[in-house]
Amino acid sequence: MSQSVSTLLLRNLHDVFGEIDPVRRRATIDEIFHEDAVFYDPKSGIHRGRDEIDRIAGVIKATHPDFQYQPLSPPEEVGNGGRVRWVSGSPGKPPAYAGTDFMVTHDGKIAAVYLFFDELPN
Question: Is the pLDDT reported for residue 2 higher than 80?
Fold first, then answer.
């Protein structure tokens, strides 16, 4: 099923990197990522393929299982790419960090995700 770039950005944020349940996370990865998709993380490097994306998403979530991602504004789309700016932290507390996800899609699935860490908004 083909999904919009905006939908894929939000599903990646919430249903992949924000998902604590490994079975649900993997099902979403299999649904929205191309088999040979790539995730670029400035801290942990390049992660190729669904298995590796699943592994690193689990590692990241395990470091802060209660954190939730909140978009700062609606996702933006241009052609087959898009971005969403977000903050993350424990519910009811100030955000712990911020970032921007930039995504390239192909045939309605994620081909590549680039993570950039941002300064926390004031």
Answer: no
